Amino acid sequence: MSSWGTDPNSADQKPNYLLDNEVTKYRREDSYATNQGWVMRAGSPATGNGNINASPEILVAIGGLAGLAANAGFGLEQYSAGWPGGIILDSTNGSANAGDDLLLEAGDGLGTPNVTAARFVTAIPAAGSSKTVTVEITWDEAVTVAGTPQVTCVNGNEGTGTGRTCVLSYVAAGSSANRKRFSATNITVAADDVITLAGADQLALNGGTISDTEMGGTAVPVFLDLSDITAVTQTIA
After folding, report:
1. 144-165 confidence digits (pLDDT tens)
2. For the chain, domain boundaries
């Protein structure tokens, strides 16, 4: 199964039969990394089992895929030349470098969970107030949320008037191991507004945490940057 691997860009590491398509049963976004290997989310249509509390179905076994240590992983470190001729490892998530490994082993796995996709879950049918907007953010590993982190969708205010914003808070309902939902019910939009998710900015923790489930607790904060994700939009009717 040469199409499988341990690159942080996990979308390129999954077999062709898993599609980047929310309509199909075999969704790429429902597959994620654990320390047992690549698995399919429990309760997803592809498993044939609607029990969301069942054990995830292992698609291919790769031991330690999700990372074996809190400060290790392909998604966490980058190499740079050090003096005199050594190697310096710098964290790529904007945090301090204290405690980083001097050697990055192949068995360290993916390390810090990376955002791989973002989408709108609910459509916005027409202009008006008190509209419900729900989006979903996908990571390549299972992540644990505490508190109410937020994500802001950019409103271009193409319609009449200005100042309309779209700040969504984490909701457990509809969220799964590696796909977390954010929603708000008091959104005001105008006709012709274009709401954009991803392509810029990052998730705001808002006093909460989003952490690597495999490591337990809050030892490994996940990547929150949405700037590398292809932007998706909703145009208000």
Report:
1. 999 999 999 999 999 999 999 8
2. 115-235
